[in-house]
Specification:
The protein is about 25% helix and about 30% strand. It is of the alpha+beta class. α1 crosses α5.
């Protein structure tokens, strides 16, 4: 299969508080030509599954935490090459979604880097464990995510799109990170979520949302946003895949990305 490589036309800068740690951080995203790379404190890490060092409530690449929202923006805008440099070890929380990244990237525009030939996905890629499923196949951008809380509200939310890239900017990127109300004391105890507030994080009470959602099914959309960012670590344009996922988090997403990368390199079976 053939796909178009692209980078940004000019650098973009962001400032904010680290999503979990709350430390002030400045991020500069520059045009690149060697894939997507993150740089902090002199260490350069390629955005690849094998470089993930933690998946506890976020995805960490080498020393850089919470990369999934920016990776999702890269995926949804089909940016294949960029250099991301930080002056602190975690990406900012911004508004809890990917939309601020998307807006800034679209504003500066994109620079084509030529076409590249990649091996087509010749078989389905599955990641299954108890209660979790991710199925990936060659396709045309038909994606589906099932968010499931069992008997607890909202029980099940299913978000589906038949045109992942076409709907990304308006239907997926604005969806924010979220938490169950009963988890908040533990989140605070472990020093997480310090870069978020009630405008940038959706709170799910036991009978409904505690603050105003952007979409009725915002949690399902955000889980798909995260899934996009994590699977893009495999380096495969997401418009060329069909994906069905249920109840997955960052750990399972990254494991599926590793399997996908192995298949694409001819090492999978």
């Amino acid at each position: 299969m053939t796909f178009q490589r692209a980078t940004l036309k000019a650098p973009v800068q962001f400032e904010g508080l680290g999503l979990h740690g709350g430390e002030p951080v400045r991020v500069r995203v520059s045009p690149g030509s060697e894939g997507i790379r993150f740089r902090y404190a002199g260490e350069v890490v390629a955005a690849r599954p094998e470089n993930v060092t933690d998946t506890t409530r976020s995805t960490k690449l080498g020393p850089v935490g919470t990369v999934e929202h920016m990776m999702s923006a890269f995926a949804g805008l089909e940016i294949t090459d960029a250099d991301v440099e930080l002056d602190a070890p975690e990406m900012p929380g911004m508004d809890g979604s990917a939309t601020e990244y998307v807006r800034a990237f679209v504003e500066v525009g994109f620079e084509p880097l030529g076409e590249v030939e990649a091996q087509s996905l010749f078989a389905r890629v599955f990641h299954k464990e108890e209660g979790i499923e991710i199925a990936i196949s060659k396709g045309d951008g038909h994606w589906q995510y099932l968010y499931d809380t069992g008997m607890r509200w909202p029980q099940q939310q299913l978000f589906e799109t038949e045109d992942l890239i076409g709907t990304y900017r308006s239907e997926i990127a604005p969806s924010r990170t979220f938490a169950l109300a009963e988890e908040i004391p533990q989140i605070i105890q472990y020093g997480l979520g310090k870069g978020l507030d009630e405008s940038s994080a959706l709170i799910l009470g036991i009978e409904g949302y505690k603050n105003e959602p952007r979409f009725p099914d915002e949690p399902a959309r955000h889980k798909l946003l995260d899934l996009m960012g994590d699977l893009y670590l495999a380096g495969v344009p997401l418009r060329l895949l069909n994906v069905v996922a249920a109840r997955s988090g960052h750990r399972a997403n990254v494991m599926a990305a590793a399997k996908l990368a192995a298949f694409m390199s001819g090492e999978g079976s």
